[in-house]
Every structure is written in structure tokens, then in C-alpha cells.
Amino acid sequence: MDEQVKEPMNVEYRVLGPLEVLRDGVRVPVPAGRGRVLLATLLLRPNRFVSVDELVERLWDGEPPTLDRAHKTLQMVVRRLRMALGDANCVRTATGGYLAEVDPERLDLTRFRRLAAEGEFAAALAHWRGEVASDVASQHLHREDVPPLVEERLVVHGRRIEADLAHGRGAELVDELRELTGEHPLREGFWAQLVQALHQAGRPAEALAAYEQIRDHLDDELGVEPGQPLRDLHARLLDPASRAGVPRQLPVGAVHFAGRDAELARLTEVTTGGAAVVITAIDGTAGIGKTALAVRWAHSVADRFPDGQLYVDLRGFEPSADPADPAEVLAAFLGAFGVSGGRVPVDLPERAALYRSVVADRRVLVLLDNARDVEQVRPLLPAGRGCLVVITSRNRFTGLVVREGAVPVTLGLLGEDDAVALLTARLGAGRVAAEPDAVADLVAFCGGLPLALAVAASRAADDPGLGLRALVDELRAADGLMTHVEAVFATSCSRLDDDTARLFRLLGLTTGPDISLDAATALDGRRRAEVRRSLQTLARMHLLVERSPGRYTSHDLLREYARSLRETDPAAERLAAVRRLLEFYLHSVDSADRLLRHSRVAITLCPLSDGVQPVLFEDSAVAAAWCETEHENLLAAVGLAGERGLHQHAWQLATVMFGYLYLRGRPSERIALYRVALAAARASADRYAEGITLHSLGNAFSALGAFADGAVHYAEALRVREEIGHLHGIAVTLDQWAINHAMSGDLQSAKALHERAIEKRQEQGSPSGLAMALNNYSMTLVGLKEFDAALAANDEAYAVVTQEGMAELAASTLDTRGLLHLERGHLAEAVATFQRVLALPDDQLPDAIKTVTLENLADAHARAGRAEDAVAALKEALLLREDMGNEKAAEKLRARIAELS
């Protein structure tokens, strides 16, 4: 008789609702009390180590008994839990802690995440049965662990609704979205979706009413306007003819703006002629309110510029950062109009010319804030008759007045009436009227400087019990040691709690234009919720500005003041804070880079300090968008690392930024960055890092078309890598240097370097590296018309690809084979090979290779006299080139199509 085979046990764990363990569909009793807290804590971190100290913190809600007793009790709780779970036990011991070892398909949380990542949003949300671990009694767990999961659910919920809206199901979503906006009244994403749903449902009046509802709510609760996406949506509803993608970059205006009636009237007067581009230059001292005035006026006339409003902070007088590069600003402006990637010229004059062409027939408002000098702004001036430029600066731009006909508007100190109006807007008429003498003294003390008045008013508003006379006395007492403006800042800072005051000082160490909540949390070292509260306090007291939700900046006078307080904190603490910030950026960019490029140098990153939580990405589009948002901060971080002597952070951050910078298509920017990284590598005498950064500089120069400079850096990289015996690096540099020669037309030199690269790949024993080196060699041999040798190299490359199962290299290897057939005149074989490439699955056929293959296929068809087939292939290639943003290549394809049609 055959032995009966026992069916495998089916265990399922659930935390998205009441905590449950099911064995073959039957609920397994989980011990009450600390046993449930322990299991829930581990399952909320599936397959991740959790230290004994953290578990003790959870099990006793932050108030454990003596350490020895807590550890012994924890061991007892673990034993009881394991006994209760029996063969469904998932608790494993690790050094210094425990983990829940579970199959991701057996836990509802990991299934939820997998389905969400795959775009199955409705199926993912179906795993939620209620509040997370709803029957687990632990304040600590529900305060620390649950909120991030609730946020995950809301994000997925929003994505599911986005998908439904994309399919035109707005009418079905209205009730659901009204419920969600009621539960989450400050979550703008749900409000935007409600507005869209009502619009889709043919209820435009209700859509506009919903926008006004969230606008009023944000103003009442937070004193802010809706974010840019919601404002753009509102604008499209008001003007259905307006085009999608129109840039609307103006910052949110100051909530408590007052006065400046004469200046506002002057701006309106000089810009109402309808003539060619008008340039208005607003100048005045620091803190005088130039930006506030410009932004307020720009918003008042924005409807006159339906084709877009552009804004940039040129950082002309930033104490801790370089002024913005006009070339980079132009690239960003062009990107706002859909011109990106390969369509953006390298040289500044060409970029400026393209920018002027793009806006020539448009009505666009351009606000250039905090400009340093005429040379910085002149390339940014449009030429269209319907355009308007507003510039703010501490300097007077006489050159613009003379050459471009700019209209100067000099901003002076606030008069007494305007200053009192500002205080009244912030403190209320009753409080100001109650102490007229104190108000007069306060205005006099602040010298009519709007920034000082705003900070002082915020100090008073933050403490309703503080009399204005008492505030004036406080300021006068502080004034004995500093200037009036510093006294105002110092008085406000003196009222901050210790942690918030420390964060204010630490922010003075940063060099980027702004900072996110996540980055500020790393800089500070406290918990995210605590840092958020401190940032909100600083914003409320006008010591920071929340530029957009979760992103903060400060006036350069305030940042300079924060920097002046640096000695308050020990040098070691300041360095540790900078280190944490750099580690946050480094590990976040590394996570993005892993998605943005598949082939990359493997480096061991600087370790994360305790408590630093980088942003981790699972979607390449999200990763690229984050890098774009943080772009200026990342560049600044590399410089900051170099200045602070954190050389390893500097070169590693530059290295892991490669994938994003390569996609961004700005080799000149990469050159500047890698020069800083090279200096850091050499300062630390790290030869390995020196080799990497020299090689990266070679790549950047080659991408720029500066092949001679590229060759110099490849040669130096090769020398360094040979001296330290870095075999992989030697092979890579030889191969890239060979490609650099081939691109410059020196095929014989390229051939010699390819042969050396192949030798090193064979010595290294890297199949993928050998296949790429052989394929690159084959392409150079095709260019030299050495067809037999090219075929032999390509055969060998394809044999390695096939033998090692490297599907990702099959397309490029086969495309080279097709090109070889084409150049030999074997047209039928060429067509068959190219079609074989195009038949590969999408995940094995990158767009870059597919495009080249289509163009080669078109060439083969054309040579065979099949013009119609050639045009069909070229049209498909054209679509890809346009999607990739390579306008130069696209233009060539259009010309080729016209020639064959």
C-alpha cells in the first residue's frame, strides 16, 4: 500500500485589520497582551531584524521595567508565542533581536504592496479589513508603526481613483471622494480628484464650488493657498481652452501682505502698453520686500499671460550657495514647455536662442527673483511681444535700463502707515489700536524693514498674552549687543523651544535652496513628527517659509543669522548633522540610481547613522521625479561634503547621481560635479575613487563631444586603475576610451583599445563585460570594413550572451549583426536580423536600441528599393525619438521620411 503523502500546511498572517494567524483556514489563537504586540511588531516589518531594545520599547509602551527584567520577560513572551503558534510559528532569533520570517505571499501586508506595485490597486486595497492591528493594545505601535501604513493605503487609494478617472468613471466616484475629503479635509490630492470627478460627471459648477471649499479650508486652517496642481486644475476648469502643460510656477503670495500701493500702481502703469517685451527691475536692500511685492503683483496680472508664468530664484546673494547658472535655468524653462533631453542645446547661446524661439509667439510672464547682475539675467530675457519680465535684485540694473529699456522700480523702507497696516494684518486691528505708542516704537525699531516687522509681528502673534510694549522693551534690551534686525531675529529665536532653536541653527549649515521634511529630519536627528512640528513653528514665526507642502526655505538674512549662531552647538554635533544630511541624500539617490541604470559600479556606501531614513524607490518614474525636485540640493550637497572634509560622501554622491544626470542629458553639469568629486577623491588619497571619478569625467566630456578632453581623462583613469590593479575598472575604461575614439573618427586607435579591453575582460572572467566588449569591438570593425573579423567578434559575443542567458544584451548584439549584414550588402539577412531584434520582448528591448534598429531596418529596406517599408520603420523610430526628447535625431528622421515619400 502506498504511503499517504501529507499535504503541506497552509499558513496565512494578517495585520491589515485585526491581527490573525490562519492555519489551513482555521484561526490560530494568539496570546493576548504582549504576545500580540510582539507578533504585530514583527509582522509589520516582515523578514526584517528588530532589536531587543526596540521590542522592549513597544511591549512596555516606552516605560519598561529594569533592563534585565525586561529582557527576561521578552524571552518568556517569545517562548509563549512560539508555543501558541506551533507549526505556524514565524518568529526567528537573530543576534540582538528577532524577526518574523514569512513568505511574502503569506502576509496580507506584503501582498498588498506587491499588488500595488503591479498596478492592481483595487485588488491591493481588498486586503484591508479595517484599522491596522486594530485588536493589538499598544499606544507605541499605533503611534509609530500604523500611521505610515495608513499613508500607504491612502496613496494606493488615490492611485486607484486616478486609474478610474483615466477611464472616465468620474460620475461613479463622486460619493466616494466626498467621503474621503470629509475624512481627510487637508489632503489636496483627494480634493483635486473630486474636482475632476465632478467635471467628468458634467457638474462644472459643483467642481468649482469644491475648489473654493478646499481653498477656504486651507486658508482657515493653515493660512495657505492650494498647491500648484490644484490651482492648475482650477485654471483649466475656468478656461477649458487653455492647454495642458502650461507652466504656472509663481510661488504662493504672502498671506499678510500690506501697503506698497504706489509701487503696485507703478508696475501696472508701465506694463499696460501691449508693446514688445517689457522688463521691470525692482531693486532695494535685503529684507525690503522685493519678492513679496513682485509675487503679489505677478499673481494680480497672471491672467494676462495664458501661455505660462515662469519663476526662478537666481540666488544672487545667497550666503551659502553659488548664484544660479543661467544655462541651467534655461534648461529648466525649456523643460517647462516640454523641451527636454536631447533637444536642449549644450551651449548657453544656443539654449538662449531656442528659449526665445519657444516663447516668441506666446504670452509669458517671467519672474527672475534675487538676481545678482545683468550678465546673469540677460540670457533669460524672452523676445516675444507678449512677454513680460520682472526682476528683483539688491542691485540697480543700469545696463538693462540703457540697452533693453528696463523700467526701474526702487523699493524703499515702509512708511509708517504701511508698516502699521502690515502689523494690523498680522495682529488684528484691536491689538494694534490698544497700544498706539508701542506700535510706533516697534515700527521705528524695525526701521520700516518688512522682514523685521514680519518676524516681530509673528513673535507677538505667537504669544497673544505678550503686550507690544513688552515686546519693544525686549527688543531694546537685545539691541545692546547687535543690530536692530539681528535683535528682532534673536528675540523671536529666544522664544523657541531648545529643539526648534537647534534645528534653526542647523538649517544654517545647509547650502541648497530649500529642504524637504525628510531631509530636515535627517539633519536634525529627531523623529519625523517632532521635526515637522519644529518646522511648522519656524514657518509660523516667519523664520522659515513653506515654499510648497513639506518643502521649506528661508530669507538669506535669516540664513546668515542662523549661520552666525553656529558656535552655539559643538563642532562635533554640527559635523554629525551634516553627515546625516549627506547620508540621507546619498542613500536616497543610490536607491533611485538602482532603478535608473541597470549596469553600474558596485560601491560600498558610507553607512547610515542611527535614525537616518532615506527615501527608497520602487518606481523609476517616481525616482527620477524626486531627483529632479532635489536637483539643486544634490549638487549643493556634493560641494558641502567637499567643504566639510567628508570626501567619501562627496565622491560617492556624485557617482550614484550618474544615472539621473545621464537621463537629464546635461554633460556640462556632470563635468562640474565630477571635478568636485575628483578633488575629494584626491584629498582623501583614495585611488579607487580617483579612478572612478576620472572615468566619469571622461564619459561626461565624451557625451559633450569634447573627445580630446575625454581621452585625457580616460588615459589618466586607466593609469590610476592599472597602478591599483582594479581589473574591472581597467576593462571598462579601455572599452569606453575605445568608443570615444570611434565617435571621434579614430577607428584604428579604437580598435587597439577594444582588443586590450577584451583581454582584460577575459582575464577578469566577466561574461557580461566580455560580451559588451566584443560587441563594441565588432561595431568598430564594421566601421573599418573588416567584415570577417567583425563577424567573428559578433559571433563570439552572441555565443557568450546565449550561453550565460543574458537576455538584456541580446538586442544590442543582434543589432550589430544586422548592421554587419547591411554594410556587406546582404540585405535579406540584414532585414531578417533587424526584425528578429524587434520581435524581442519589451523588457529585453530598450527604446534606445529599438530606435537604432528601426533606423537600420529602414536603411536596409531603402537599399532594397522598398521605400514604403522604409518609411513605415522610420515613422515608428520617429515616435520613439520624439518620446525620448531627441529633437536633432527626430529632425533628421523627418527629412529622411520626406526624401523617401
TrEMBL record:
The lineage of its organism: Bacteria, Bacillati, Actinomycetota, Actinomycetes, Pseudonocardiales. Keywords: DNA-binding, TPR repeat, Transcription, Transcription regulation. Residues 3-102 form the OmpR/PhoB-type domain. Residues 3-102 bind DNA. InterPro entries: AfsR-DnrI-RedD_regulator, BTAD, OmpR/PhoB-type_DNA-bd, P-loop_NTPase, Sig_transdc_resp-reg_C-effctor, TPR-like_helical_dom_sf, TPR_rpt, WH-like_DNA-bd_sf. The keyword Transcription applies. TPR repeats lie at residues 811-844. This is BTAD domain-containing putative transcriptional regulator. Belongs to the AfsR/DnrI/RedD regulatory family. Pfam families: BTAD, TPR_10, Trans_reg_C. The keyword rRNA processing does not apply.
